[in-house]
Amino acid sequence: MFPAKRPRLGMAEDGRPTLQEELLALRGEVEPVSSRRGSQPRSEGGGGTVTYRPTYRAILAKNNYLVRKTLGNGSYSKVKLAISLSRNKEYVAIKIVDRWVRRNRAPSDFQTKFLPRELDVWPRLRHTNIVRVLDTFDDGRRVYMILDYQENGDVLRYIQKVGALNEPLAQSWTWQVCDACRYLHDQNITHRDLKLENLLLDRNFHIKICDFGFVKGDCLADLSRTYCGSKSYAAPEILLGEPYDPKKADSWAIGVILYIFITGKMPFDESRGNAGVLEEQRRLEFPWRKYKKVTPDERDLVLRLFTYDFRMRPDIHAVLATPWMKQAARTDMSDLRDLAMEGYRHRKEREKEKEREREREKEKQAEKGVYGGSGRGTGGRTHSM
């Protein structure tokens, strides 16, 4: 069997194929699957029979999605940006989960537990601060999740660019994360992988939680014994390998997120290993004097969320009941875009100031070069007699 040839593309007025023509062409795209050795020598036309299957682009094209670029990659998944021709040519994000990666089968617990949970829970969620799943389908090898596209990337990249947030933005984003968690926890659902990379920003810079690969439902039953998520955001009980309350583990992760919001730094030094991190989690000795813009309300909420004993740690309702969060709930959040853009402007101002400092330093070094030497009384110049 030979791969089907792509149809010849017609051209739009600007000389490029139309979106519909690109879509039709991609529907015939295939990739080799395996080869079976034939009985004839390669020199006589033997050497094996190659079989083909549709590429992921072809599968998506048959469902009216035209892939444009890669947005991200994970261990068993990748996220693509695509145009949906059945949704008025809107951009969508497509999470593609591959059950087979580099000839290795994805772990059985991933296929039998985590992936089915994500497909069961995420599409049912409806909250303004949670990424919406528009559709899902399966081609036998891959699972496709069609998601609302969030054009401003994730919060990690934003903070890497601008540093610590101003208080109004930190307060509003923290409230949005907490309110989405309240929605989940009220249904006995926990995320278990809250981190900056899983907080996306829509066109108006509102938070959208994504990636429910470690989601857990029915949290009323027993303590959880599945140790998942990112170590940087993990609560002490998880690092200790003890049974844990996943709702309180979400609370701890929110504490890490808030700390990064207000300082631009990670709270704990992961390079010290589990024992070193656990010691830091017990002591909670943060350099607050260094972060002069951090307010007492911000600091107090961080310390409450970092309660070592999860039984004493506040749940999401207690967090939302704090004065700082109540104030956020009363805030008009229609100006979050302006607040976020202000962060970019401040970053540019800081870069300009650093450049001016570098120029001043160069001028000082140049002056030392001109006036340096052992002569005295003449600005450092030396004269030969």
UniProtKB/TrEMBL annotation:
Basic and acidic residues bias (residue ranges): 343-367
Residue numbers spanned by region Disordered: 30-50, 343-385
UniProt cross-references to SUPFAM superfamilies, sorted A to Z: Protein kinase-like (PK-like) (SSF56112)
Segments of skewed composition (Gly residues): 370-385
Organism the protein comes from: Littorina saxatilis
InterPro entries reported for this sequence: Kinase-like_dom_sf (IPR011009), Prot_kinase_dom (IPR000719), Protein_kinase_ATP_BS (IPR017441), Ser/Thr_kinase_AS (IPR008271)
Keyword Cytoplasm in record: no
Cofactor: Mg(2+)
PANTHER family in UniProt: MAP/MICROTUBULE AFFINITY-REGULATING KINASE, TESTIS-SPECIFIC SERINE_THREONINE-PROTEIN KINASE 1
Keywords from the UniProt entry: ATP-binding, Developmental protein, Differentiation, Kinase, Magnesium, Metal-binding, Nucleotide-binding, Phosphoprotein, Serine/threonine-protein kinase, Spermatogenesis, Transferase, Ubl conjugation
Pfam family, one: Pkinase
Annotated protein name in UniProt: Protein kinase domain-containing protein
Keyword ATP-binding: yes
Residue ranges constituting the Protein kinase domain according to the UniProt record: 65-325
